Amino acid sequence: MSHLVIALIVFVAVFSSALLGLYLRTVLPEHHLSEESVNVVKLATGLIATMAALVLGLLISSAKSQLDTANAAIVRNTASVVNLDRVLAEYGPETQEIRASLKRNYIATIQILASGDPSQLARLESAEAAGRLEELQRQLQALSPRTDEQRQRQTQAIRILDDLSAARWLELLGATGPIPVPLLIVLVSWLAMIFGTFGLFTQRNGTIIAVLFTGALSTSEAIFLILEMDTPLSGMVRLSLTPMRDAVALLGR
Questions:
Q1: Does 132 lie in the same domain as 188?
Q2: C-alpha distances out from residue 244 to 49, 51, 162, Å
Q3: 23: containing domain
Q4: pLDDT 10s digits, 159-181
Q5: With 37 labelled, which of 53, 68, 121, 242 sits at a CA distance of 20 to 30 A?
Q6: Whole-structure pTM over 0.85, yes or no?
């Protein structure tokens, strides 16, 4: 289910609860709306609102952390790839083919990340991706250094390539993951109860309905942003692949 659809469902649930509260006010007996009843409901609603605010704050913080982790993984991997290419260039012209393979693999990785397709993203941790890295490792190990400097460059290149193993991309993929459905359901139910209470103890008029509509829209937008930030490889709020694309121009020089 897309994040936009989920946000729409949240809006409908919350705003409908507010409208239900406005309706119940017109049919409930007067003693249900007495000052004592209102005070008790306000206390209960305050408790629920506090819990909902805490959960929303934690979700926003967690989603932002996921986005920052994914961004850091992109920058770190980009720096490692450029560094590997520089080390191979310093080794000598014998590494020209390895550098060309590195660039092709890197461009393929950018295309996969840019697709946002889960089936394509899964290829980053597939046996095929691991096989390409192993082939690069074999090519590096097959080099025959003639000087101490070349041996140092070979050792350095192998170490960098080890850091660029599939586990590094798993760090990026691990930064993405959907919010648990039970948590989302509980949060939406709390928001619905809060807005239902707003409607229950408010006289119905155009201004009140507009305010409740705006509030319900704002809460659904907040959940939409949380869901988007929590999956930075797809959707509207996505990782910037600009560092990776800029790095392509540096490879092979």
A1: no
A2: 43, 41, 19
A3: 3-63+180-230
A4: 888 877 754 555 555 555 567 88
A5: 53
A6: no
